[in-house]
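Suppose you are handed a protein chain with no further information: no name, no annotation, nothing but its sequence. What can you learn? This example shows the usual starting point.
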Amino acid sequence: MDKKRLKEQMAFCEEIDKEKMVGRQTWLTGAVRKENDAEHAWHMVVMTILLSEYANEDIDVLRTVTMLLIHDLVEIYAGDTYAYDEEGKKTQKLREQAAADRLFQMLPPDQEAGFRKIWEEFEAENTPESHFARTMDNLQPMMLNAATDGKSWAERGIHLSQILGRNKNTAKGSKVLWEYAKENFLQPNLDKGRIVEDVHFDEN
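A reasonable first move is to predict its three-dimensional structure. Written in structure tokens, the prediction is:
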């Protein structure tokens, strides 16, 4: 047994417990509180296992769920950047790159390289797995926003153009799930005025 390797792995396992303390802006169903990053990751993983049949292309489900479990770990140091925080997004990439350097170097070199590769694949959005992972990353908060009667959208005065901009690549992972989201999550909240309709929905 390589004691140094095991010690490094266990230190990483302890460090990523901090993901549970990274707050997000999405309300849980029932709107009792907002979710954290670890809850977001768990939810997307279960959704991926259930919904992978709707991917546009065949995907490696294990690689996709691994990607979803890893991709937000950098927010332990970089913090969560709210989807519509335009100022925050200006520095997001640099903050997250620095966080990835800091976090993954805790691992043994082979695992550091493996985790980094999967994290970078998600960021690049250039494989069927990363396309579907991005779809899940966008679908899950839309579902929760809809389940809370559009609470977060209404509180922040979110415009349809903002949502469509964020979701410009959602259909790359699954056209079926994007159409479902438009019909069941977005349109009802447009009808109720929870989302500001500043563009014509049927043109997108």
